[in-house]
TrEMBL record:
Gene3D superfamilies: P-loop containing nucleotide triphosphate hydrolases
Domain ABC transporter: 9-253
Protein name (record): Oligopeptide/dipeptide ABC transporter ATP-binding protein
Alphabetic keyword roster: ATP-binding, Nucleotide-binding, Transport
Pfam families linked to this entry: ABC_tran, oligo_HPY
SUPFAM superfamilies: P-loop containing nucleoside triphosphate hydrolases
Gene Ontology molecular functions: ATP binding
The keyword S-adenosyl-L-methionine is assigned to this record: no
Superkingdom of the source species: Bacteria
Keyword Transport: yes
């Protein structure tokens, strides 16, 4: 991504550790550096447990990093007070995999859609109906849905409601955490089309967390590939199939042609299992699954190095062949 794009948010050296059994420490995110741009989509991919959701929870103020900074328009938001966090949260909204978990099943769609606007005192009670109808039109659902309950809707329709609700506050950043993973492929596509249209219209920065590289590459401007808490490659979305360099990203690209990736399954094209996050080896985290592993990889952690504009790779093998 070029410098011409306006930076909205930057994660700088983000580390998140959790205490684990027998006095051990689990490092879910290890020195994460990412930049998010206005009107652009950052896709974050990786297998289950690589730290995607933990990263997103920090970006959305749900958790504080152990160390590092998250800059929102240049201001560090990791140490904000409760009141400041609440005020800032309207600029940064989330859509989750399971909308039912965040909807009150006893509330009608009218009230679900306008609850955030009421909480932030952006509309009056008598404006709820008109606003809810406007939001339904925005996500291409019939206005009559204002009187429905969420359990009387399909998964795709419910996800449209989540998107409308999240965008009601006109946030600058929309975070989608596996937002389309539970949907059938055709429904998934139509929800992505909607998100892309709304992103363009409203110039929203989107962070899209997903385990499915094939899906994310179709619309992300920038993709960060995570492995055991580390970013191992960042690459422009359109380049990810042809120009991916990290052996792990290449395996992910290979896997999308063999199986539709299931987050619970290991990557088919890699022989061994990923180590436990409690047992990340010294050196490169991918070493035990990598055919190019050398003694250096077992001793030293490769740093992310730029090999082309917007394309960074953390791998000694790639460094050596591109020298
Ligand atoms: N509150 C917590 N306490 C202890 N460990 C945690 C906590 N939250 C996450 N972890 C651990 O941190 C690691 C990263 O988890 P995270 O949920 O961020 O991964 P993920 O890539 O989002 O996976 P998934 O797609 O399955 O959600 C995992 O090993 C997880 O068990």
């Amino acid at each position: 991504m070029s410098e011409n794009h306006e930076i909205v948010m930057q994660a700088k050296h983000i580390v998140k550790q959790f205490p684990a059994s027998r006095g051990r420490t689990l490092t879910a995110c290890n020195d994460i550096n990412l930049t998010m741009y206005k009107g652009k989509t950052l896709g974050i991919v990786g297998e289950s447990g690589c730290g995607k959701s933990t990263f997103v929870r920090m970006v959305t103020f749900l958790e504080k990093p152990t160390s590092g900074e998250i800059l929102y328009h240049g201001k560090n938001i990791t140490g904000l007070s409760k009141k400041e966090t609440w005020e800032n949260r309207q600029n940064l909204q989330m859509v989750f995999q399971d909308p039912m978990a965040s909807f009150n099943p006893k509330m009608k769609i009218r009230d679900i859609l306008t609850e955030p606007l009421m909480n932030y005192k952006k509309i009056k009670r008598n404006e709820r109906d008109a606003k809810a109808r406007e939001l339904l039109r925005m996500v291409e659902l019939p206005e009559e849905f204002v009187d429905r309950y969420p359990h009387n809707m399909s998964g795709g329709q419910r996800q449209r409601i989540s998107i409308a609700r999240a965008l009601s506050l006109e946030p600058e950043i929309l975070v989608c955490d596996e937002a389309t993973s539970a949907l059938d492929v055709s429904v998934q596509e139509s929800v992505i089309e909607l998100l892309v249209r709304l992103q363009k219209e409203k110039n929203i920065c989107m962070i899209f967390i997903c385990h499915d590289l094939a899906l994310i590459r179709s619309f992300a401007h920038q993709i960060a590939v995570m492995y055991l808490g580390h970013i191992v490659e960042t690459i422009p979305g359109e380049d990810v199939s042809g120009n991916a360099e990290h052996p792990y990203t290449k395996a992910l690209v290979g896997a999308q042609f063999s199986v539709h990736m299931d987050p619970a399954k290991k990557i088919e094209s890699i022989e061994s299992e990923a180590p436990s996050p409690l047992d990340v080896p010294v050196g490169c985290p991918f070493q035990n699954r990598c055919e190019h592993c050398t003694e250096q990889c077992k001793k030293e952690m490769p740093e992310l190095k730029e090999i082309a504009p917007g394309h960074e790779v953390a791998c000694f093998y790639v460094e050596n062949i591109t020298k």
